[in-house]
Structure formats: C-alpha cells, structure tokens
Amino acid sequence: MGSSSLATPLSLAKSVFSSPFIFTRGYKITRHYSNSSFRASTSVCDDLKEVRSTDLVDLEYAELNIKHKISEEVGHVRIRQHVNPLSSSFSKPAPVPAWEEVYKDPSLPLMVDIGSGSGRFLLLLAKKNAESGNYLGLEIRQKLVKRANFWVNEMGLSNAHFIFANAMVSFDQLISSYPGPLEFVSILCPDPHFKKKHHKRRVVQKPLVDSILQNLKPGGKIFVQSDVLDVAQDMRDQFDEEAKVLEHVDTVDTEEGWLSENPMGIRTEREIHAELEGAKIYRRLYQKKILMDSLQ
Fold first, then answer.
1. How high is the pLDDT of residue 183?
2. Contact at 8 Å (CB) between 33 and 281?
3. What does the DSSP 8-state code read for residue 262?
4. Which is catalytic among the residues 55, 58, 113, 191?
5. Which is deepest, 35, 102, 137, 291, by most CB within 10 Å?
6. Which residue, among 126, 114, 125, has the nearest Cα to 266 in the 3D structure?
7. pTM of the entire predicted model
8. Buried b / exposed e across 109-134, counting CB within 10 Å, b at 16+?
9. Rounded to an integer, what distance in angstroms lies between the CA atom of residue 64 and that of residue 265?
10. Phi and psi torsions of 248, nearest 5°
11. In the chain, which stretches have pLDDT less than 70?
12. What pLDDT does 51 receive?
C-alpha cells in the first residue's frame, strides 16, 4: 500500500504504535490488562484523540494489503451487526464443500473460527502459515463471507476458505466431513445478545460445545474471548463443565483465571476497538486431553 493511500490518522497511528501486533511496546503507551483503564502518557494523549480504531485495524492488517481490493460484484459491504441465529432463515445446515477444491491439501490440520466477521484475522493467520494448516471461517452474515472469499482469491491463498453458515446448526456436518484433523477452534468476541431472554441466541450452547469436543483431535485447542464479562463467563462455564475432556491452559500469565494476553499474536478487529476504548478482554484457552479415549 503506497504512502499516498494512507490517511493522516493512519499515518499518525504508525507514528504512535510500533508493532503490527503489539502496538504499545517501546513507546510511552502501555496496555494494562489488570484493570479497564487505558493509560497513556500526556505526551501522546492528544495524538490518540485523532487516531480512530478503524485506522488501528488497518494498521494491524496492513500486511494483507486488501483494503481497496473490492470488486464491482462485491461492492461496498454494509452488514447488520446483530443477527438472530434462531431465525428460520438460518435453520438449514450449510452444504458440505468439496474439500479438495477448497484447499490445496485438505489433509492438513484445520483451524475453525466461529463467527469470523470480516475474515481479516483468519486471512492473516492463513498467510503466515501457508504450508502448515488450513483455515476455515464460519460466518452467519453472507455478505461478509462473499467479500472474505473474494479476498482469498485476490491473495491467491490455497489454505483459507469461508462458509456462510450458522455454526449452531452446521458445525458438526461440516467439520466431521473434513479429511484432516481439527486442531484449533476460536470463538472471539461473539455477539453478546445482552437481553436475558436473548441469551439462548448466544453461539456457545451445549450442542455446539459437544460438537466441537467430538470433532477436536486430542491435544487440540479451543480459544474463547470477549470484552463483555457476562459473555466470557458464560463461555467459560460451558467449557469448564467439560473438565473430564478439557483442561484450561494456564501456563501463560493469568489474572483471576483469564489469560492476560492474546496467545494468537494477532488481534481481532473487535479486540482492537475494545482495547482502544479501555475495555478489558477476557480470554480462556482450553486443550483437549490426550487421554480422552481412555476416559470414555
């Protein structure tokens, strides 16, 4: 991306933050995971007021160089932020793709991102691990899937794919048909559905948890996170109930049972927005026990 295409706020963001993954290292700004405040020195606070979270997202994913790669067919994507997965329009399972046509090598380990959003998080992972794994995004908003697959083609990736699917309905049918092992599942900042009567719309429900565990290989991992404590606790409770099968990976720094930092090395778009606003991110990483078969 040439310098002429960079907006002033994005240029400012680059001058304030040093790393595409951990923006704050080596500068006067420090992210504090111990509380919900975003502390900054006086010398850069005024500059930060001019930096929008969208500029930080662009900076985080600048390596993809896809911001302006939108075809006439896809066009500008406007999407609904909240979708009811229990609607009859999302009750039909997604068709299983021909995996040998989707991936160059469908025997490679698979990572599935449930609720992949724009897909840029998964695309960057796929680009960085082109020969070692395949990446699948499941997203309930069809326009985002269409654009993400357009980006896959534009980037020439043979290890990334996105499917328009309601994970609550389609996960097992899709993943059980995949030829290789399911190695990693992520559920990152899912729709919180705040109203109590709408909690049943939250993606992490018992049937999905069972489906993930059934398909996940021994030693495989599940990573969940949210900037909404109630949602994070809900996901934690669901997976903690599977203690015979799962163990929480706490070998990295934790605070009150939550991982202090994102172990993926790449932040999601929602994560970037939330942290800039000073929100705390609640994270849990689980691993399927190697001896699961002997426990059954």
1. 98
2. yes
3. -
4. 191
5. 137
6. 125
7. 0.77
8. bbbbbbbbbbbbbbbbbbbebeeebb
9. 15
10. -80, 130
11. 1-51, 67-82, 84-91, 193-195, 198-199, 201, 251-253, 292-296
12. 63
